[in-house]
């Protein structure tokens, strides 16, 4: 540390300078090699534990493969069956519908919450802790609590609706009702989570900017739109990408909503593609077919990601 | 100037040092001290894989005492839904299934199509034990050519009809269990009783939901259901299926169903509050009803015979996977656990109702009464139900097809489909599922 | 001087929104607590009871007593604590390193590598279980705790999160200045970058700890009931057909306490982040 500081102050002797010349080669190596070294741990561990499962799933998807094992290579037959499978398309529709219903309010709510929590208010830690609590709560508790809320006969939500002479709604039975209920579970569980990501990003914005804006007479809303939102863009992109991936793989909440029924209701009205994959692989033991669904989920997620990126770029182009 | 970039608090530095230390500590992180070798110093350790509660703990101690050199380790998973993916993973990876593995009926039926992951118990002298089991239980685990036996029966889900005495009294119906049983020799009579109870405006529905009821009716309709013995799908041509369906739909139409999702909080609470007056109940459900209804409702629930001739839903088997290194010893243990004495012990421990006629007739089972249910002679009721059921062949894709029909019935209950539409949908779903 | 508090009108609106969100968020947890302090007959009751009862001690005793011995709950708590700490420390460190590299260092193939990190997240998790189990069989790690630790020492989520965070939080001038001062890249990371990353790292640490603590499918697949993680142990409290809600909720309550402690620890980091002079540009 001391030598470093000496060097930094430019107080080097001849020896120091020579050392620095040698260090030149080193520093070039450091400059070009270090980045690879820094990202290497991820790729090494992924190669060790992630690559085989990935390849294995692809290989299995090309086989007829049930509980009793491999029954032969069948090429793309699982995929062609899948494309003609109405249950798959139904699950895809549910997944996309829930993706929209769950992601948009979730991210907007998170943004507002984060903005509020970024203000100097009393009992800050308490409030921050509070909004994150849904992430902590165990899935069993979520299932029971939401079972209470969305009960057909004695649920609190139907009780409330009754005050406005609406209902009672059989939340499990209809597509619309079950979508709303499942989306509310997702929103409830993950809004605080995203709010915290935004909050961390907002913390890195210098207060000076806000002070300057205030001097210029900008109100809180204006400050939020012109300073906060643009400056946390990387965090926004992050949450949109993660919510899209999470939405395409939505599994736990609809499963809990249906009391653990992977078929997602009597008419599969809230079965997502991840549930369909699980049903095929682990309930019907059609492991080959389930793997084909998995590969398709992966491809669809990639497509959704690309669409995201394109739309994001268009929006950015539009505002500039 | 430059010192500004070197803050005094190296919080992350400490963390990173710790992180580097972690790499070395990972071995120390590993806490699992599983004895990998299954035989050392002449002792053989047999691993038994089970789910829920098989009630074998005392039997293990007994077996270890009489078989020096054998140690038994049970690895249990509480819920079948968690156990099933694990089982598939063990079979696919060729490791982890242990020496004796429990197979639930639905899984066993599926496995019968290609049972090469399990040893043939006939090779280990199990053939002589046939008379120890109800015929249909034995045949379920026997390949159709009769040459390979992959499992020995443990319990059966013998059923009775549980009912609320207070609701029956309110509706002016008899409450004493023999008289209640006499109300419904057939399912038509059950329907008629239901109409009477509903007409009395007790605020309760007649039964909880239609799925279990349909299943009971179906199993009484002859020796096949969705598949014939060549595993050809006959769901649309088998009159028994249609009859069970029509009878169930008639009950839904009569407004007898409470339309409650099984295992939902509302369903659980229904036992206490008396939301429904009857429910088909396997032996193990008595414990649940007692726990859910609570001590305050002791004597409010009772159990009578089911309509029709006997009813059984589910049950399990023990098998020996070919990946076991000690198949001979494992087969001996499976035989012991499923022997009449073993089954009687399991009934005493956890109320798992035996699949062995000798065990059903033993004093411990046939004399069993349940205090909570007005001292109902449950051993007799469930025993009669199990023994009077005629064998039914299910077929490997039984469960998928059954799910399709169950879902269609639920859709009728929810008012989402008319019965005719639901039937068409069930058939096309069934054909697709079975053809995949 | 900056105004420390917003105007009175806006202020009450802020508090109102926050309080409403707080109530919505906390109610299920509160209700969990209520059930944990009562006996089983309150479940499914309408209206649900809103005040705690007096059975908490009883339920906790049952949780750690012989009745629930087969769930190995204490062992599960210990295992999860070890696994969560190991995984969190490692993920925070390696993600900060990689995230910084992706955000601020120039190297050939950077974008392709970053996209491949993203792509690994798009594989549905449930399908990897069987092949990953096969890897564990090869390594002989079945029912060993390292099976739930080692494969998770890095995370794509973490790399991506830290990459996005570093992009804004670490000003380029800061890096250039430090380079001119002769810092090596790793020295730069330790002395200049890591303090600036602290709030992001705190969030990542928090999420990683919670994620590992709440993980269920994989521990269930690779461990056995006698050596479980906490969520695995919780699932063992219910039998196939009967859920003892009070026991389970008492267990859930106990399982949440460590998370709250961790939250308070990391939460301090999150708040102090802005005060750090190092972050100012």
TrEMBL record, chain B:
- Signal peptide (UniProt feature, chain positions): 1-21
- Kindly give the InterPro entries that the UniProt entry links to this protein: Bact_solute-bd_prot1 (IPR050490), SBP (IPR006059)
What's in the keyword line of the UniProt record? Signal
Q: Which SUPFAM superfamilies match?
A: Periplasmic binding protein-like II (SSF53850)
PANTHER family linked to this entry: ARABINOSE-BINDING PROTEIN-RELATED, SUGAR BINDING SECRETED PROTEIN
Protein name in UniProt: Extracellular solute-binding protein
Q: Which organism is it from?
A: Kribbella sindirgiensis
């Amino acid at each position: 540390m001391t030598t470093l500081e000496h060097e930094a102050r430019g107080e080097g002797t001849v020896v120091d300078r020579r050392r620095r010349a040698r260090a030149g080669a080193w520093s070039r190596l450091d400059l070009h090699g270090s980045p690879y070294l820094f990202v290497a741990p991820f790729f090494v561990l992924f190669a060790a534990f992630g690559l085989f499962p990935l390849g294995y799933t692809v290989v299995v998807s090309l086989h007829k493969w049930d509980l009793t094992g491999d029954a032969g290579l069948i090429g793309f037959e699982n995929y062609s069956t899948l494309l003609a499978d109405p249950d798959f398309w139904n699950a895809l529709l549910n997944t996309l519908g829930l993706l929209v219903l769950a992601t948009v309010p979730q991210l907007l709510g998170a943004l507002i919450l984060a903005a509020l929590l970024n203000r100097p208010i009393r009992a800050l830690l308490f409030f921050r802790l509070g909004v994150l609590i849904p992430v902590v709560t165990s899935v069993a508790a979520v299932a029971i609590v939401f079972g209470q809320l969305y009960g057909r006969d004695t649920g609190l939500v139907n009780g409330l609706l009754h005050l406005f002479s609406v209902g009672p709604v059989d939340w499990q039975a209809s597509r619309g009702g079950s979508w709303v209920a499942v989306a509310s579970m997702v929103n409830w569980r993950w809004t605080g989570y995203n709010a915290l990501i935004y909050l961390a990003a907002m913390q890195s914005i210098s207060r000076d900017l806000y002070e300057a804006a205030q001097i210029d007479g900008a109100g809180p809303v204006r400050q939020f739109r012109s300073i906060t939102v643009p400056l946390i863009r990387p965090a926004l992109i992050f949450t949109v990408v993660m919510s899209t991936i999470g939405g395409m793989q939505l599994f736990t909440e609809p499963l809990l909503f249906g009391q653990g029924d992977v078929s997602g209701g009597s008419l599969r009205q809230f079965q997502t593609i991840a549930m369909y994959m699980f049903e095929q692989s682990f309930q019907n033991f059609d492991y080959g077919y389930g793997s084909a669904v998995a590969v398709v989920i992966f491809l669809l997620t990639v497509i959704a990601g690309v669409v995201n990126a394109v739309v994001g770029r268009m929006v950015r182009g539009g505002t500039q | 100037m430059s010192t500004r970039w070197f803050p005094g608090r190296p919080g992350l530095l400490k963390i990173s040092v710790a992180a580097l230390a972690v790499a070395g500590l990972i071995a120390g992180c590993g806490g699992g001290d599983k004895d990998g070798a299954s035989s050392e110093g002449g002792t053989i350790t047999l691993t038994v894989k089970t789910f829920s509660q098989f009630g074998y703990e005392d039997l293990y101690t007994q077996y270890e005492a009489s078989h020096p050199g054998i140690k038994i380790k049970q690895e249990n998973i509480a819920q079948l839904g968690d156990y099933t993916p694990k089982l598939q993973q063990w079979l696919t990876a060729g490791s982890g299934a242990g020496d004796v593995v429990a197979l639930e009926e639905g899984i066993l039926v599926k496995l019968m199509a290609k049972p090469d992951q399990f040893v043939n118990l006939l090779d280990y002298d199990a053939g002589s034990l046939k008379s120890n089991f109800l015929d249909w239980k034995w045949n379920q685990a026997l390949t159709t050519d009769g040459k390979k036996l992959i499992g020995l029966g443990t319990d059966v889900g013998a059923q009775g009809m549980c009912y609320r005495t207070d609701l029956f009294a309110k509706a002016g119906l008899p409450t004493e269990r023999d008289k209640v049983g006499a109300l419904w020799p057939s399912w038509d009579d059950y329907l008629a009783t239901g109409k009477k109870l509903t007409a009395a405006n007790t605020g309760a529905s007649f039964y909880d939901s239609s799925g279990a009821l349909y299943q009971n009716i179906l199993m009484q309709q002859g020796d096949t259901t969705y598949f014939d013995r060549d595993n050809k799908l006959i769901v649309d041509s088998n009159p028994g299926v249609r009859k069970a369906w029509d009878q169930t739909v008639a009950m839904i139409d009569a407004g007898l169903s409470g339309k409650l999702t099984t295992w939902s909080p509302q369903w659980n609470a229904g036992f206490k509050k008396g939301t429904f007056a009857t429910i088909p109940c396997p032996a193990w459900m008595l414990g649940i009803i007692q726990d859910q209804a609570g001590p305050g409702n002791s004597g409010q629930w009772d159990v009578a015979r089911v309509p029709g001739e006997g009813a059984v839903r589910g049950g399990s088997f023990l098998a020996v996977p070919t990946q076991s290194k000690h198949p001979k010893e494992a087969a001996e243990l499976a035989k012991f656990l499923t022997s009449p004495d073993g089954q009687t012990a399991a009934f005493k421990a956890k109320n798992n109702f035996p699949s062995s006629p000798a065990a059903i007739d033993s004093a411990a089972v046939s004399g069993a009464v349940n205090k909570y249910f007005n001292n109902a002679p449950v051993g007799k009721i469930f025993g009669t139900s199990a023994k009077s059921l005629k064998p039914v062949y299910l077929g490997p894709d039984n469960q998928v097809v059954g799910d399709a029909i169950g879902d269609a019935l639920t859709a009728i209950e929810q008012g989402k489909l008319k019965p005719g539409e639901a039937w068409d949908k069930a058939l096309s779903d069934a054909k697709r599922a079975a053809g995949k | 001087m900056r105004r420390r508090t917003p105007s009175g009108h806006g202020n009450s609106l802020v508090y109102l929104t926050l309080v409403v969100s707080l109530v919505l968020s906390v109610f299920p947890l509160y209700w969990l607590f209520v059930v944990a302090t009562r006996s089983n007959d309150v479940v499914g009751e309408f209206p649900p009871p809103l005040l705690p009862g007096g059975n908490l001690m009883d339920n906790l005793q049952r949780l750690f007593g012989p009745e629930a011995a087969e769930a190995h709950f204490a062992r599960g708590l210990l295992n999860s604590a070890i696994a969560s700490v190991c995984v969190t420390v490692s993920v925070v460190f390696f993600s900060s390193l990689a995230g910084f590299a992706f955000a601020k260092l120039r190297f050939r193939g950077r974008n392709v590598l970053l996209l491949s990190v993203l792509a690994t997240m798009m594989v549905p998790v449930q399908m990897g279980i069987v092949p990953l189990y096969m890897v564990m069989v090869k390594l002989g790690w079945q029912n060993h705790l390292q099976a739930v630790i080692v494969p998770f020492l890095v995370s794509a989520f973490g790399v991506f999160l830290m990459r996005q965070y570093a992009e804004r939080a670490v000003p380029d001038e800061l890096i250039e200045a430090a380079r001119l001062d002769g810092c090596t890249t790793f020295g730069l990371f330790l002395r200049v970058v890591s303090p600036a990353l602290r709030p992001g790292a705190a969030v990542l640490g928090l999420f990683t700890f919670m994620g590992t603590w709440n993980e269920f499918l994989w521990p269930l697949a690779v461990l056995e009931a006698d050596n479980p993680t906490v969520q695995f142990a919780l699932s063992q409290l219910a039998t196939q057909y009967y859920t003892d809600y009070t026991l389970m909720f008492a267990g859930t309550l106990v399982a949440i306490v460590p998370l709250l402690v961790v939250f308070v620890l990391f939460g301090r980091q999150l708040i102090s982040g802005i005060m750090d002079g190092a972050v100012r540009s």
